[in-house]
Amino acid sequence: MERFRKAGSYASRPKSGRPRSTTKHKDQFIKLTSLRNRKATAGDIQLTINNTREQPISKATVRRRLAASGLRGRVARSKPFLRPANKRKRYLWAKKYKNYTLENWKKVLFTDESQFEIHGNNRRVYVRRRHGERFLNQCLKSTIKHGGRSIQGWGCFSFSGLGSSYRVKAKAFSKKSNIILSNKGMQ
Question: Average of pLDDT values for 116-124?
Answer without folding.
Answer: 65
